[in-house]
Specification:
The protein is an alpha+beta fold. The protein has three helices and ten strands. The mean pLDDT is 92.
Length: 203
C-alpha cells in the first residue's frame, strides 16, 4: 500500500472480458436484469458470474426554501417494506433530456413546485456492485408554485405525503439513523458540508 497524489484519487473506467451474457429479465419498461460470465484480464480460465441491473439513471432534488426547510415526501416502497422519508426524484426516462430538465419536471410533477436556482450537489452510483444506475442530485432554491399540469399520480405516488422539514432536524434524523433512504442522506450531508465551506452560489 502506498500514498498517491490527490489528483489520482478518482474512479476510472474499465471493462473486463465477458465470455457469455444472457438476459434474466427484459421487457418494455426501463430496467433489465442481465447475467454475465466475466474473466480477470490476463486470466481467461478464471471465470465468474455477475448479475447486472441495467438502469437509465435517476435525478433527486433537494428543494430548500428561504427558511431552510426541505421539501420531503413519505412514500411506500414495496421492495423494502417501508414508508421512507424521501426527496422528489424520478427516472431519467426521456432519452435526450438533460438531467437538470428531468429534475425540473419531477419537482413540478411530484410537489407542484418550480425553482429559480438549480445547482448540482452530487452524482453517485447507487449500488455499483449490482447496478449501473447513476443518481444526479440537485439543489433547488428560489421555490415557487408550479402546477403539475396533466400529470396523474398513480400507484404508490397516489398515497404519497408531502411535508416540509427543517434542515437541521433532517440532518439530525439522518445522523441518528431514523431516516435511511440513501439519496436523501447523501443530499443532506453534502448540503451541510458545502454550506460550511461556503460552496453555494448566491441566489
Amino acid at each position: 500500500m502506498s500514498d498517491s497524489p490527490s489528483e489520482d484519487l478518482a474512479d476510472r473506467p474499465a471493462s473486463w472480458p465477458v465470455t457469455r451474457s444472457r438476459d434474466l429479465h427484459r421487457d418494455a419498461w426501463m430496467v433489465a436484469l442481465r447475467e454475465d460470465t466475466v474473466t480477470r484480464p490476463g486470466h481467461p480460465d478464471d471465470e465468474f458470474v455477475r448479475i447486472s441491473l441495467e438502469h437509465p439513471g435517476a435525478v433527486v432534488i433537494l428543494a430548500v426554501d428561504a427558511e431552510e426547510r426541505v421539501l420531503c415526501l413519505r412514500q411506500y416502497r414495496h421492495t423494502s417494506q417501508r414508508v421512507f422519508v424521501e426527496l422528489p426524484a424520478g427516472l431519467r426516462d426521456a432519452a435526450d433530456e438533460p438531467p437538470v430538465e428531468t429534475a425540473r419536471r419531477e419537482l413540478r410533477e411530484e410537489a407542484e413546485l418550480g425553482a429559480t436556482s438549480w445547482q448540482p450537489l452530487l452524482s453517485t452510483f447507487a449500488s455499483a456492485g449490482i447496478s449501473d444506475e447513476v443518481q444526479d442530485i440537485f439543489l433547488a432554491r428560489g421555490l415557487f408554485a408550479a402546477p403539475r399540469g396533466d400529470f396523474v399520480m398513480l400507484h404508490e405516488e397516489a398515497e404519497m405525503e408531502i411535508f416540509w422539514a427543517p434542515m437541521t432536524d433532517l440532518l439530525d434524523a439522518v445522523l441518528a439513523g431514523r431516516v435511511r433512504q440513501g439519496p436523501l442522506a447523501q443530499a443532506v450531508l453534502a448540503y451541510d458540508v458545502l454550506k460550511r465551506r461556503g460552496g453555494f452560489e448566491p441566489m
